[in-house]
Write a structure and sequence with these properties.
The protein is of the alpha+beta class. The chain has 8 helices and 4 strands; from the N terminus they run αααββαααββαα. The chain has 2 domains: about 90 residues, Single Sheet (Outer membrane efflux proteins (OEP)); about 350 residues, Outer membrane efflux proteins (OEP), CATH 1.20.1600.10. β1 and β2 form a beta hairpin.
């Protein structure tokens, strides 16, 4: 409760006593007593090393995507940073949280207001009519002593929420950038697979024409021709889905870039043009300072811890101080004469007595929220280690897969070339050639997919490592 002071002067004796009480009490009252728990970082298990065989070294840089050596990807990343809608929304949430933190911190400072009044009067007495004007400018101030640390804790909670919003923005940005890289790689892969399918179709059609000529001369039979016709039809039917998926990835890329679909055209390039950057994950113990989502979880935990103090302080009395002062005069010229000064001081105390369980419920809710966020924080830490381990395994296995698939494609190409030579020499029949041809077509498409898998595994590792971001 705030005690409103009157505009009348305080008697000198009472004023002197109040000043002596205020001078003695204020230093004591300003030393606030915190009734909430001090924040302690939860203990979480940390692995000593990664299961995958890696050499601890420097973490990736913040511009990790440049390791793929693709100027086109660089330009797409720059566009996404400037125009992505999810990132813009995350930035807006940061501004929103900053404003809430400013609002929450306002009670830590006094509230000061100004007022003024002018009164014009005319009176009549035995001497006649009299006209006069009175002026009364003044100031008022109020301040709640944060004796139990409630206001300070509320400001801390809002500040930690604002910090969490910044970590959320970094997490969103990392998601957008890795999504842009992955979508670009997928679009290139579908274009490569489409080119492979069209090349395979063209080769199969040439073989079919040769078989049809041989059938006319009696060298090949109808079954050989029918089998090759089946191969041609199958390859032809595979092209429309690839075109559809290529366009879908271009559309997805346009959304990430914040652009209309019609304005985004996939620049020339193939997956083979991309480099495979080297990623060294460093030590697991460094993970907690390298993942913005882990930092966000801890900031939310700190905010919830401060809210426990706010809820607990609500059980204790609050102390309000008010003061007002100014001048009153019937003439503007003498309004600020010290003799015309008026002032008042007041103090009030409010104590909750019966709230029907509301305060107890708020406190228990704050404690439960804190326990929930402790579990979330521990989960985020364990998930961070697990994500990195999964990504390291994926990089290792996809690297091996691509190497083996390239060897398989080279073997299929040799087999097809040998079969063609032997067919011309008349030492094998067409069926052997058709089998090697089918194996080659399958190997070419599988190589493109294996290359895409390795690129995406690298992007996943960058994402798991926090994209090179480090908490400052």
């Amino acid at each position: 409760m705030t005690i409103l002071s009157s505009a009348s002067p305080i008697r000198p004796a009472r004023l002197g006593a109040f000043r002596r009480w205020f001078a003695v009490s204020l230093p004591v009252l300003l030393v606030a007593c915190s009734v909430g728990p001090d924040y302690q970082k939860p203990e979480t298990p940390t692995p000593t090393d990664w299961l995958s065989k890696t050499t601890p070294a420097d973490w990736p840089s913040t511009d990790w995507w440049r390791g793929f050596n693709s100027p086109i990807l660089d330009s797409y990343i720059d566009q996404a940073k400037q125009a992505n809608f999810d990132l813009a929304a995350a930035m807006a949430r940061v501004h929103e949280a900053d404003a809430q933190a400013e609002i929450a911190g306002a009670p830590l400072f006094p509230s000061v207001g100004a007022n003024a009044s002018v009164t014009h009067e005319r009176t009549s007495d035995a001497s006649g009519l009299k006209t006069f004007t009175s002026y009364a400018p003044g100031l008022s101030a109020s301040y709640e002593l944060d004796f139990w640390g409630k206001n300070r804790a509320a400001a801390e909670a809002a500040q930690q929420t604002a910090i969490a919003s910044r970590f959320d923005q970094v997490t969103v940005e990392l998601t957008v950038l890795t999504g842009t890289a992955n979508t670009y790689f997928q679009a290139l892969a579908f274009r490569d697979r489409l080119a492979v399918a069209e090349e395979n179709l063209s080769s199969a059609q040439i073989t079919l024409k040769g078989l049809e000529l041989q059938e006319q001369t009696g060298i090949a039979n109808a079954l050989d021709v029918a089998q090759q016709q089946t191969t041609v039809s199958t390859l032809n039917a595979a092209i429309p889905p690839l075109r559809q998926q290529l366009q879908q990835n271009i559309d997805a890329l346009a959304i990430l870039l914040g652009q209309p679909t019609q304005s985004v055209a996939l620049a020339p390039g193939v997956l083979r043009d991309l480099a495979f950057p080297t990623v060294t994950p460093g030590l697991p113990s460094e993970m907690l300072a390298r993942r913005p989502d882990v930092a966000e979880a801890e900031a939310q935990l700190k905010s919830a811890n401060a809210n426990i103090t706010v809820a607990r302080a609500a059980f204790f009395p609050s102390i309000d101080l008010t003061a007002s002062g100014g001048f009153a005069s019937t003439a503007l010229a003498s309004a600020f004469n010290p003799a015309n000064g008026i002032f008042a001081f007041g103090a009030g105390l409010t104590q909750p007595i019966f709230e029907g369980g509301q305060l107890e419920g708020q406190l228990e809710n704050s404690k439960a929220r804190y326990d929930e966020l402790v579990a979330d924080y521990k989960k985020s830490v364990i998930s961070a280690f697990s994500n990195v381990q999964d990504a390291l395994t994926s990089v290792q296995q996809t690297t091996d897969q691509l190497s083996r698939q390239e060897a398989a494609e080279a073997a299929a190409q040799r087999a097809y070339s040998i079969a063609q030579s032997q067919l011309q020499a008349g030492t094998i029949n067409i069926l052997t050639v058709l089998n090697t041809e089918t194996a080659l077509f399958t190997a070419r498409d599988a190589t493109v997919q294996a290359r895409l898998a390795r690129l995406q595994a690298l992007v996943s590792l960058f994402n798991a490592l926090g994209g090179g971001w480090q908490q400052s």
